[in-house]
Each structure stands twice: as C-alpha cells, then as structure tokens.
Write a structure and sequence with these properties.
68 residues, mainly alpha, 3 helices
Length: 68
C-alpha cells in the first residue's frame, strides 16, 4: 500500500494530494488499476459516506471502481 497523503481536514488533504499527484503523474497517466481505501479514526463510516469521500477525489483523474 502506498499512502499518497493525509491531513486533518479535506482542505489539507486535497492540497497534499495535488502535490503528490504531480510527483506521481505516471500513475495517473497510465491505465493502471487503483484502489482507494477510506479510513477513519474511532468511527466507522457507512458505505454511502465512503463513496462520497472517494467521489471527492475526482480531481485526481483516475478511474476508481464504485461499489454496486
């Protein structure tokens, strides 16, 4: 597993992800399988909320399989 970024809130996370994405442009350019895991601290997120978090990452430009 490769952690690209983490942050205390979405604003910090997005800024760090944008910087990480620039350094990992080959991962975003190629059609490689990707998996996004949503993790929370001391709380279990419902599936719908996990999907909403993943959808907020659309600015990265890679395709992520969505749960049915």
């Amino acid at each position: 597993m490769d952690v690209w970024a983490e942050g205390p809130d979405w604003r910090a996370l997005e800024a760090r992800l944008r910087a990480a994405a620039a350094a990992r442009s080959a991962w975003l350019r190629d059609a490689r399988p990707m998996r996004v895991l949503v993790d929370s601290w001391l709380r279990k997120l419902p599936l719908a909320e996990q999907v909403a978090c993943i959808e907020r990452l659309d600015f990265l430009g890679f395709q992520v399989p969505r749960p049915a």
